């Protein structure tokens, strides 16, 4: 049962991580260097929705897999750092 929620959380972590990188390294330069702010709006909104889903799935996986609060906090903080979700992916995969 909990393996499915951990798999979903891991997948969402990867998707959310990529959306964060697209926002930081593609949309933001397009806004400030090329004058196209619409890309930040589009990618930013998409990333925001994905981040909310990431947080919801984190709480679901926390509950199902009985992760410690410290570990869950680490997964959350890592999602705030560029490339962070990719570094915690191995740890999350070990719970599958």
Characterise this structure:
The chain is an all-alpha fold and 96 residues long. The chain has one domain (2-93). Helices cover 86% and strands 0% of the residues. The chain has 4 helices and no strands. It is elongated.
List descriptors.
96 residues, elongated, 0% strand, mainly alpha, 4 helices
Question: Could you outline the blueprint of secondary structure elements for this entry?
Answer:
Layout: H1 2-34, H2 38-65, H3 69-80, H4 84-93
Helix pairs in contact: 1-2, 1-4, 2-3, 3-4
Assign the structural class, choosing from mainly alpha, mainly beta, alpha/beta, alpha+beta, or little secondary structure.
mainly alpha
Q: State the low-pLDDT regions, or none.
A: none
Radius of gyration: 15 Å
Quaternary structure of the protein = single chain
Largest sheet: none
What is the compact description of this entry?
The chain is mainly α.
